[in-house]
Amino acid sequence: MAFDSSGGKCVIFSAPSGAGKTTIVQYLLGVLPELAFSISACSRDPRGEEEHGKHYYFLGIEGFKNKIEEGAFAEWEEVYTDNFYGTLTSELERIWKEGKTVIFDVDVVGGLNLKKIMGDNALAIFVQPPSFEDLERRLRFRSTETEEKISMRLEKAHIELDRASEFDYILLNDELGRACKEAEEIVRNFIS
Fold first, then answer.
1. CA angle, residues 54, 110, 56, in degrees to nearest 5
2. Exposed/middle/buried for 125, CB within 10 Å: 0-12, 13-18, 19+?
3. What pLDDT, in 10s, does the model give residues 96-109?
4. Of 49, 88, 176, 184, whose CA is between 20 and 30 Å from 64?
């Protein structure tokens, strides 16, 4: 099934883990009622307080692969071995039917895939940490992952930072309050 991206607009926030994209997206959802969050699907199990249909659609590996076969995704990728993430077409259609603009919080490859699919209907924003050292500090400060996971994320971050120029806009997150206000202005201009 081919995906029709003419349904509406979307705003894509991408960044390496720890750059602050989720915090900025949460801020925007609080101040811009015309935005609605696209809940991603994934193959992993819920962590901590995460709920199915609120934080992610937890499909499991087989369930995710079945959705790929059905052509149910606007985009998807295997981030790490057997660790899939994607955007269900039905999720985009649900939000557009409500007359809202979709906002995404996705990794860099997912963001670029969405931008390619959505074309001029998408604004792709890369959230840039002040430095690689700062990014590493933020990841360690979260204390949510093993040293192995942190190393994996940092390795991936090097590659992701090199792709920043492929986005429509690079948002420096050196001071969160300022970055949130700048993001708000950029998004308001795009959706108006």
1. 10
2. buried
3. 999 999 999 988 98
4. 49
Name residue 21's amino acid: K
Whole-angstrom Cα distance, residue 35 to residue 10?
9
User: Which residues, at least 6 apart from 75, have a Cβ–Cβ distance to it below 8 Å?
Assistant: 86, 87, 110, 113, 114, 117
Q: Is 153 left (phi over 0), alpha (psi -120 to 50) or beta?
A: alpha
**Cβ atoms < 10 Å from Cβ of 121:** 15
- CB 106, CB 92: distance < 8 Å: no
Residues whose CB is less than 8 angstroms from the CB of residue 63 and which lie 6 or more positions away in sequence, other chains included: 43
Contacts of 55-62 with C-beta under 8 Å, sequence gap 24+, read 57/88, 57/91
Whole-number Å distance between alpha carbons of 41 and 175: 31
State pLDDT tens for residues 146-173: 888 888 888 888 889 999 999 999 999 9
Domains by residue range for the chain, with CATH: 8-191 (3.40.50.300)
pLDDT on residue 7: 67
